[in-house]
Write a structure and sequence with these properties.
This protein is α+β, with helices and mostly antiparallel strands. About 50% of the residues lie in helices and about 10% in strands.
Length: about 400
């Protein structure tokens, strides 16, 4: 490069000073040429732009996920605070009206017989603290269910634990500021269920016996748990359709009548028309021979949303329900309950070993249920007529 410059200097008669001043410029041009030769400018720019765009996308995605997580946490916290506030107000009102009697008798005052026949009031924290846990019955998405003993009464104790799905999912995701945040959703569901059970007074819904709200914390010890509810305990024999199908016709008919009465009540409850989305065997228990709905944390009074009538179908079939002006399929909750009850209970139990004299009536009724030609009240009346007909056959 220096030789080249001397050649140009000799030909153009440049002074050494001019050559010295030009040296950095020439070197810079030479370096740019070499870099361009090895790494074309366009390729470098494109690669850098691609990496920058990729990083920007990742940052934006991460920010969105963080915002969604924080928003969900704040919403659950608000809901939980609202429920706890409502509950505290109800407890305060009950205490003013009834004194401490509403909490139930203390353990020392309990008679030797079954306390459920003696006391219809909801037990408070002091009573629940005396319950002895004797067995784990199972756990679901949001709560742990245990068998406890209060006096001589065996009860079902519900609470939140680290092992349940909702809590584990949150802990594994790492999307929380405090560990307690991961208990918000499960605690909210537990409180929601307890408040719904206080409102739903029906022979085929388990009775709420006790409720204690202290905090959002979890503990293996019942007297340290933040939220605990106590309900009627089902029998050891779980509700399984294949076992119910083996029962005598009269017992199966009685179970179907109970389910029909439950559906009728749910369609006209004080909370509005309620849908049972999780309509499964596990949601029911037998209490003293009576089938009862035991899990209501997913029950909702919100009818399915819609934009047009085609969204108000069941199994792609029109059922006479149209999209209301409020953008909800009004009447769909009751229809879905009937549809699910038909698949789980009515179809299997009523269509097995039917007395010959009742076969025609039963077949016709099952077709009406399947084709949505009857509602819950009409079904209840039809089942009562079947029962009366069956009784007349045996008299």
């Amino acid at each position: 490069m220096v030789s080249l410059m001397m050649f140009f200097a000799h030909r153009s008669k440049m002074t050494p000073l001019v050559l010295l001043l030009m040296l950095p410029v020439v070197m810079a041009i030479y370096l740019i040429y070499m870099l361009h030769k090895q790494y074309p400018t366009n390729e470098i720019a494109q690669e850098q732009q691609h990496r920058i765009s990729h990083l920007q996308g990742l940052v934006e995605k991460l920010n969105n996920e963080i915002s969604d997580t924080l928003a969900e946490r704040d919403l659950l916290r608000q809901k939980l605070q609202f429920v706890v506030g409502n509950l505290s107000q109800q407890i305060h009102t009950l205490s003013k009206e009834n004194g401490d009697a509403w909490m139930g008798k203390y353990l020392a005052d309990l008679p030797n017989d079954n306390v459920l026949t003696q006391n219809d009031k909801i037990w408070g924290c002091k009573q629940l603290d005396t319950i002895e846990i004797v067995a784990n019955l199972g756990q679901g998405y949001s709560k742990l269910v245990q068998e406890g003993v209060y006096g001589r009464t065996h009860v079902a104790v519900k609470s939140v634990s680290t092992a349940v799905h909702d809590v584990q999912s949150c802990l594994n995701s790492g999307s929380y500021k405090k560990t307690e945040d991961c208990y918000l959703l499960a605690n909210y569901k537990l409180l929601k269920e307890a408040l719904m059970l206080r409102e739903l007074k029906h022979d085929n819904v388990v009775k709420l016996l006790g409720l204690c709200v202290r905090s959002e914390k979890h503990s293996p010890y019942i007297h340290e748990r933040g939220i605990t509810s106590v309900v009627e305990l089902g029998s050891q024999e779980e509700v399984r359709i294949h076992k119910l199908k083996k029962l005598p016709w009269q017992q199966r008919l009685k179970i179907c009548q109970s389910i029909a009465r439950l559906l009728c009540y749910m369609s006209e409850s004080t909370l509005g028309s309620l849908q049972i989305p999780d309509f499964k065997e596990e949601q029911f228990v037998m209490v003293n021979g009576v089938i009862k709905l035991s899990d209501v944390d997913d029950v909702t009074n919100v009818e399915p949303v819609c934009d047009n009538n085609l969204q108000c179908l069941i199994d792609s079939r029109p059922i006479g329900i149209k999209c209301h002006s409020n953008y909800h399929c009004v009447g769909m909750n009751a229809a879905l309950n009937l549809y699910r009850a038909f698949n789980l209970f009515f179809g299997p139990l009523l269509n097995t070993d039917v007395p010959p004299e009742l076969q025609t009536s039963v077949t016709s009724l099952l077709q009406d249920i399947e084709n949505f030609n009857v509602d819950a009240e009409e079904l209840m009346q039809s089942l009562e007529r079947l029962q009366q007909h069956d009784l007349n056959l045996h008299n």
